[in-house]
Amino acid sequence: MSFGESVEKAFTTMTSTRKIGDLQRDIQEPRPNDPLTTDHGVKVSDTDNWLRITNGSHNGPSLLEDQIGREKIHRFDHERIPERVVHARGAGAHGYFKVFDDRASKYTFAPVLTDSSRTTPVFTRFSTVQGSRGSADTVRDVRGFATKFYTEEGNWDIVGNDIPVFFIQDAIKFPDFVHAVKPEPHNEVPQGQTAHNNFWDFVGLQPESAHMVMWAMSDRGVPRSFRMMQGFGVNTFTLLNASGERHFVKFHFIPELGVHSLVWDEALKIGGQDPDFHRKDLNEAIENGAYPKWKFAIQTISQSKEHAFDFDILDATKIWPQELVPLEEIGELVLNRVVDEFFPETEQVAFCTSHVVPGIGFSDDPLLQGRNFSYFDTQVSRLGINWEELPINRPVCPVLSHNRDGKSRHRIVKSDVNYWPNRKNEGRPVPPEEGGYVEYAQRLDGIKKRARGEKFQEHFNQPQLFYNSLAAYEKVHLVNAICFELSHCEDPVVYKSYIDILNNIDFDLAKAVAIKVNGEVPTKPGRPNHGKKSKGLSQLDFLPKEPTIVSRRIAILITDGFNAVEMQAVRAALTSAKAVCYVIGPRRNFIRPMSGQDFGRGVFADHHFEGQRSTLFDAIYIPSGEEHAKTLAKSGRVVHWVREAFGHLKPIAAVGEGVDFLRNVVRLPGVDLFVPSHNHDSDEVVTSYGVITTGKYSISSAVTDALQIAPDTRGFASNFAFQISQHRCYKRESDGLSDQVAF
Ligand code: HEM
């Protein structure tokens, strides 16, 4: 039995895939008291003092002969490798991919897409594009969504983004685009954002970018979590079936938790308060067993229909509208294991669009063609020519080639031939019927020149389609985002000229931006808006099929004298639906409940009010308790917590005196709150603009409440949970309530 086969036998469960088994050979797990050694294995007696001349009271020179000191410094001096030229900041996790059945076999013979008995190990890395390795997670940017499938026929990489289109059509423009988007050359400013002259200068002069700019400036540019974004392969690939027929294909990942974003003010603040927000969110969810999951879908177009559309299907600045090319869900991707060590896994993982397996191929998409060259090339500069031998990158199937040597070669091939043909028939090319990769025999006709096809010249139909398809509040966010960015451009040539591009998309959009940023307000549309809409462009089209609060972070604000019995009942209800509750109090210690409640030393607070901010939670709950409510009223920080959550459109729940605190101290505008007729002894629930209030809640309420997360439930916790499952209350914003609160 080969090593790979024995590994597969040993690791058959979903969390220990064949790839995890393969990595075991390189994993070291130190135990307490294990000895420290040099890298050549000699035990070290002192790692704190350089070998030197000393007379006991004074130090003389340190000696170059200290091979242990030298090794330690040498190794440290060379710890850094070049960061990725783009997508430098990222976080990754292991998981698996499975198809539901063999329905895709009409398009492809690739077993990874057709064999439902297989569990294919994967590693997925999410990233931002613009910033350096140490930049913040929540900046406005495109997110990378790259997945390596360790299939039995070799590695297949989908190197995609959370946005289905790209800024440019032809790979030759990529260096210009990246130079323009990255920090400016003279002062290396700004970090992790596109709000600067050079980006807007470039996109203003390169109208093919208009569609992607619209997506990046929409809420898609500030995802709430990697777990709540779509993934797209973006480029057009091809599938080949057993009869030799070819289809063009686009790949999609659709998150189980719905597509959801931060609000901009929140994203800005989290950038300072918790720059690792997204990577922590990914790890927290996996460690809590709330494994991120995506449906995997394909859109296919048969070879004969290639030219049947009014856009070119090989143009990466265009989507294939769902109404024209429906999505077929064929499988799912699950991430269920965090990395053991960041550098060897997340930093050294190296993706290539050119990594395809038999049954999957390329198209003549001019962006993809350039990418197929670029990724391999850049991995050589980042990791060295033998990067595919690194544990995270090596396939789980046998690898044998006549490629040899180069820096840091690991594999030892025991053979006296390293070329083909050879007298021993070693490393022989494999015919297609035995699994050898073969390209589709494509007829080509044309003349050689530097040019793009005719349909590549049209740039505004689809940005219009995108804009028209957004919900009203999403349009407002889009306008605000463009205004924010253009306000950061100092050169009037830049911020004034982008209005022309916007006016080719929508007259009202262009006017709204021009007024705010000191552009020239257009008097007539650059071209008429066709008024068409499409499904799947607004995030509203992606609410989870079943409302869920799995893994949502809920802050419970308490001080001494709070109602611990009620709080425990609410917390138990929310936790039973797999939300993650955090108790926030005046100190990270035990908080005393109201008199008469026996809770030993009290309830332990996970954090104190200054240690966290409302931005880091999805919802807030304030229990009852007279003394507790009076203390809350004296804390400006807590009042700010609640007002900020209101401004960020998050669900807020309160009971009893907690409601009085909302009414008398926080004073949320325009919201109906529970009114106690005589006392708080009522469990009637009032839900208004995502604020859920009641007089009392007890264990018996929890029993009748039963946590049904549905729109018309009566219970307090159920109502709260339903509001959380809807992510935010955007009506609060569209009715102008959030604007009235200082936060
Ligand atoms: C459809 C358009 C594109 C998409 C969706 C895309 C996506 C990505 C993603 C997700 C990564 C990060 C991979 C990781 O997590 O390690 C990445 C990195 C990179 N991309 Fe692209 N990209 C696109 C276009 C291009 C083009 C046109 C080029 C060059 C011609 C290019 C060159 C690179 C390079 C050099 C890296 C760094 C790779 C590394 O060091 O590991 N990309 N891209």
Automatic annotation (TrEMBL):
Q: Which GO terms describe its molecular function?
A: catalase activity; heme binding; metal ion binding
Q: Where is the active site?
A: 87, 161
Q: Where is the Catalase core domain?
A: 37-428
Annotated Gene3D superfamilies:
1.20.1370.20, 3.40.50.880, Catalase core domain
EC number(s)?
1.11.1.6
Q: Binding positions for heme?
A: 375
Alphabetically list the UniProt keywords.
Heme, Hydrogen peroxide, Iron, Metal-binding, Oxidoreductase, Peroxidase
GO cellular component terms?
Answer: cytosol
Instruction: Show the coiled coil region(s).
Output: none
Q: What class of enzyme is it?
A: oxidoreductase
The record's Pfam families line, in alphabetical order, gives:
Catalase, Catalase-rel, Catalase_C
The reaction(s) annotated as catalysed by this protein in its Swiss-Prot or TrEMBL entry are: 2 H2O2 = O2 + 2 H2O
Q: Which cofactor does it need?
A: heme
Gene Ontology BP terms? hydrogen peroxide catabolic process; response to oxidative stress
Protein family (similarity comment) = Belongs to the catalase family.
Primary role = Occurs in almost all aerobically respiring organisms and serves to protect cells from the toxic effects of hydrogen peroxide. Catalyzes the degradation of hydrogen peroxide (H(2)O(2)) generated by peroxisomal oxidases to water and oxygen, thereby protecting cells from the toxic effects of hydrogen peroxide.
Its name, as the record gives it, is Catalase
